[in-house]
Design brief:
With 293 residues, the protein is mainly beta. 0% of the residues lie in helices and 53% in strands. The chain has one domain: Neuraminidase. It contains no helices and 25 strands. The protein is globular and about 45 Å long.
Length: 293
């Protein structure tokens, strides 16, 4: 359903005390892949306005690209039974994950029409989630071969991988499981981690320094993406157990939901502040959304 698996953690950063604001003036567009029973926007938009997502038709989940002019192009890596593209670069390179016929999750890179599979050595499963201009990628390794996409429990560990293919695995302090969501041009990684108490927190890793991200008063926080300006987007769950999207910009949290959403999850933000994500309506139908400032 969502871009990456949700986890649990604990710890509070200084920005958690900043003023909370509510978004009123933004413009929302609902995105539905033609004929699909469920649509998600998982990453983007890039500066050209192109996004990536997944659509489910006849019980099978495929990847797609969506242009600023609302042109859909479906795709799947060879041998895929489930495709989750997570990020699209300004050059149009896409990274994500797919499950093979044995239910094993692999990272993939789609560049110039060519697919490359990338797996973390020794891991049961692998997911790629982000790519920056220097060629550094983010992702996570999984103890479950399908990285939890089939409902199995999994323990995950965040990683970055350099342009030369060197993996660096890491977890925030106190984490029992973590996932990296994106890496921006400065090398700052955002993601989420679970602590031993079963609480989910967002995190930011900036040149070796970890900061925990907790939406004020939330029982769950997930940092799902960042942009070159350092803005962070994601999802949080309130004490009524309702999940909303958030934007963290200049130390201030903004809560928002597309109209009619019973659940929402912001998954990507570009340099201009355009946000993409996922929402579920009152009829339990899953849609993508684009939020324009």
């Amino acid at each position: 359903m969502t871009k990456v698996l949700r986890f649990v953690a604990m710890c509070t950063m200084s920005v958690a005390l900043a003023t909370l604001s509510i978004a009123w003036a933004q413009s929302y567009t609902t995105v539905d892949f033609p004929g699909a029973t469920a649509t998600t926007l998982n990453g983007g938009p890039n500066p050209q306005g192109n996004s990536v997502g997944s659509e489910t038709t006849s019980g099978v989940t495929h990847g797609f690209t969506l242009t600023k002019k609302n042109v859909f192009t479906p795709f799947d890596p060879p041998g895929s039974t489930l495709t989750t593209p997570n990020f699209i670069s300004p050059q149009g390179t896409i990274v994500g994950a797919y499950n093979d016929a044995s239910g094993v999750s692999h990272g993939f890179i789609l560049s110039g029409g060519n697919y490359t599979t990338l797996d973390f050595a020794g891991a049961a499963g692998t997911t790629l989630t982000g790519l920056n201009p220097s060629g550094e990628m983010s992702g996570f390794s999984c103890s479950d071969p399908a990285c939890g996409t089939t409902g199995n429990a999994t323990t995950n560990h965040s990683f970055t991988v350099s342009k030369k293919g060197v993996f660096t695995s890491f977890d925030p302090p106190g984490a029992v499981s973590s996932t990296a969501s994106t890496v921006n041009p400065s090398g700052t990684v955002v993601g989420a981690y679970a602590d031993s108490a079963g609480v989910t927190h967002g995190y930011q890793l900036n040149h070796g320094t970890f900061t925990t991200i907790d939406f004020p008063g939330a029982i769950f926080t997930f940092a799902g993406g960042n942009n070159p300006e350092g803005d962070v987007i994601g999802a949080y769950t309130d004490t009524a157990n309702v999940t909303h999207s958030f934007l963290l910009s200049n130390g201030v949290f903004t809560s928002f939901d597309p109209p009619g959403a019973a659940f929402s999850d912001a998954s990507g933000i570009n340099p201009g502040g355009v946000i993409v994500g996922i929402y579920i309506d009152s009829a339990n139908v899953e849609h993508g959304f684009v939020r324009t400032p």
